[in-house]
Amino acid sequence: MNNLTLISNSPEESLCMACRLGSLIQRPCRIALSGNLGAGKTHFVQGLARGLGVPDHIYVTSPSYALIHSYEARLPLHHADLYRLSHPDEIFDIGLAELMASPAVTVVEWAERMDSTEIFDIRIHIAIQGENQRQIHAQASGLHFQDLVRSWQQVSRPA
Ligand SMILES: Nc1ncnc2c1ncn2[C@@H]1O[C@H](COP(=O)(O)OP(=O)(O)OP(=O)(O)O)[C@@H](O)[C@H]1O
Ligand SMILES: [Mg+2]
After folding, report:
1. Do 61 and 87 contact (CB within 8 A), yes or no?
2. How far away, in angstroms, is 108 Cα from ligand 2 center?
3. What positions belong to coiled-coil segments (predicted)?
């Protein structure tokens, strides 16, 4: 199993789901986030940050203008938003390629702006299904991250 689909019925539920994934991450990891404007990518990173141990008083905001925000946590967290990327090669200019090779958790919104998303360990697509409903689809590469996604599914099942 390297695919997982979760349904979230509220922003809070999405935060919890992402927080649980963040709590499970123990190794450097590259996560691609895709989905339309307003799907909940930034929201997801906010939950993930909590699970990784970014303190509550640090507000995780969209790096749309800065392109990359970094936070201290159990593993450094780098949050990139490539919506404004004009050319795939710009990931080198903004230092993202280097960050993705570093021992950190790197999460990239609008990852589809890159040449290829093959490099990512986990690819998450969020689809809008209704005003408050989102479908979160995750696909992992490699045994370690497939196990991680399986554990995420287990802790995400309703009691
Ligand atoms: N189940 C849900 N999960 C996540 N967000 C939801 C949900 N239901 C409603 N929302 C709303 O959807 C919006 C998601 O906004 P967010 O900024 O996270 O989207 P985004 O995918 O990062 O958009 P952009 O492409 O502009 O960066 C928020 O206003 C949030 O309250
Ligand atoms: Mg966003």
Report:
1. no
2. 10
3. none
Give the range of the structural domain holding residue 44, as residue numbers without chain letter.
Answer: 3-156
φ/ψ of residue 52, rounded to 5: -85, -10
| 87 CA to centre of ligand 1 in angstroms | 25
pLDDT at 117 over 50: yes
Is-contact 113 82, C-beta < 8 A?
yes
Q: Whose CA is nearest to atom 4 of ligand 1?
A: 11
Domain count, the chain: 1
The CATH number of residue 97's host domain is 3.40.50.300
Cβ–Cβ under 8 Å, residues 104 and 77: yes
pLDDT of residue 66: 79
